[in-house]
């Protein structure tokens, strides 16, 4: 039994890691009062930028850096449109996803169906010989560090208090001297950078290849996870790994000879997400108590 559980655990962590990055980034963005529905597009652009960079240089870490900055650039574009030009955040986020899908398909055309050479085994010093942990890629540990940093930032730092204040009441936050628009820009760019790393992980670690639509809806799952988590980092981490576990169990079930159709098995993670969101939505009070009060609402600092 242990021989089966350990591979499932390792694979579940690997499958959930891109969701950890994307969900934590979106969580920080939404905590500032900005609703960015363009996570899928940012992940795709980050993925193609990371793949192209690694294909050209042979360096996985340069690829990750390229994915990060590509995600930041996409988020900055969203920020200009919504925070400076006061466009509707929902419409701008959907437009960003459409733009990201098209841009990644165009930029990735030369690499369509191309696979990178197998990556050399990487692990952190002193951890390589530890069971389970030694089999994890360093980016997994980076996602845990991001989780710890986000939790500390939001609940144990003055800067995190300022960000949460901006998310609850930007007018009150400005009245006490917080730079509302600057904070929202930084939070939005952080969310874009995390989405870019999530896309880079998918392209460089999880699949090692590029195809159109590589993210397969994971950006939308990351947004749903933020709601599932009630805007709390710990719950977002748990939700990401639960989704990863459901994703991986389908492959082990198919390998064990279960006769369910592959299409039905592939739909299980998304069905599980829908069920969870329906259950949460049955008690709207829970959402109202935890959702940032100004989420999705524009704020003009000049008025």
Structure description:
The chain has 303 residues and is mostly helical. It has a single domain (2-111, 136-290), classed as ABC transporter involved in vitamin B12 uptake, BtuC. The chain has 12 helices and no strands. The chain has helices at 2-31, 39-57, 60-84, 89-107, 138-156, 158-168, 170-175, 180-206, 218-228, 233-255, 262-281, 284-290. The mean pLDDT is 89.
How do the helices and strands line up, and which of them pair or pack?
Layout: H1 2-31, H2 39-57, H3 60-84, H4 89-107, H5 138-156, H6 158-168, H7 170-175, H8 180-206, H9 218-228, H10 233-255, H11 262-281, H12 284-290
Helix pairs in contact: 1-5, 1-8, 1-9, 1-10, 2-3, 2-4, 2-8, 2-9, 3-4, 3-8, 5-6, 9-10, 9-11, 10-11
- Total separate domains: 1
**What is the helix tally?**
12
Order of helices and strands: HHHHHHHHHHHH
- Biggest β-sheet strands, sense, barrel: none
Q: What structural class results from the helix and strand content?
A: mainly alpha
Q: Which percent band covers the strand fraction?
A: under 5%
Low-confidence runs: none
Q: How helix-rich are the residues, as a percent range?
A: over 70%
CATH topology: ABC transporter involved in vitamin B12 uptake, BtuC
The coarse silhouette is: globular
Quote the average pLDDT.
89
Rg over CA atoms, rounded to whole Å, is 19 Å
Beginning-to-end CA distance, first to last residue:
64 Å
Overall number of strands: 0
Level-1 CATH class name: Mainly Alpha
Q: What would you say the CATH architecture is?
A: Orthogonal Bundle
């Amino acid at each position: 039994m242990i021989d089966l559980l350990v591979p499932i655990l390792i694979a579940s962590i690997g499958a959930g890691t891109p969701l950890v990055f994307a969900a934590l980034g979106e969580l920080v963005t939404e905590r500032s009062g900005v609703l960015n529905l363009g996570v899928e597009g940012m992940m795709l652009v980050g993925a193609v930028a990371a793949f192209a960079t690694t294909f050209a240089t042979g360096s996985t870490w340069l690829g990750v850096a390229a994915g990060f900055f590509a995600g930041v650039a996409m988020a900055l574009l969203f920020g200009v449109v919504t925070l400076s030009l006061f466009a509707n955040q929902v419409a701008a986020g959907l437009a960003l996803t459409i733009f990201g899908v098209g841009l990644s398909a165009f930029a990735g055309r030369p690499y369509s169906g191309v696979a990178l050479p197998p990556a050399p085994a990487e692990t952190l010093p002193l951890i390589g010989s530890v069971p389970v942990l030694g089999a994890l890629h360093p980016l997994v540990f980076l996602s845990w560090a991001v989780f710890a940093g986000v939790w500390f930032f939001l609940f144990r730092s003055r800067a995190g208090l300022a960000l949460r204040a901006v998310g609850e009441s930007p007018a009150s936050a400005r009245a006490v001297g917080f730079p509302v628009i600057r904070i929202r820009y930084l939070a939005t760019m952080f969310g874009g950078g995390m989405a870019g790393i999530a896309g880079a992980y998918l392209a460089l670690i999880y699949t090692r290849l590029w195809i159109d639509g590589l993210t397969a809806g994971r950006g939308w799952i990351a947004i749903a996870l933020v709601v599932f988590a009630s805007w709390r980092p710990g719950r977002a981490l748990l939700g990401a790994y639960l989704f990863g576990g459901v994703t991986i169990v389908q492959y082990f079930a198919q390998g064990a000879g279960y006769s369910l159709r592959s299409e039905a098995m592939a739909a299980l993670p998304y069905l599980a997400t829908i069920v969870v969101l329906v259950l949460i939505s049955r008690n709207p009070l829970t959402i109202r108590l935890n959702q940032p009060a100004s989420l999705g609402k524009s704020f003009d600092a000049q008025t």
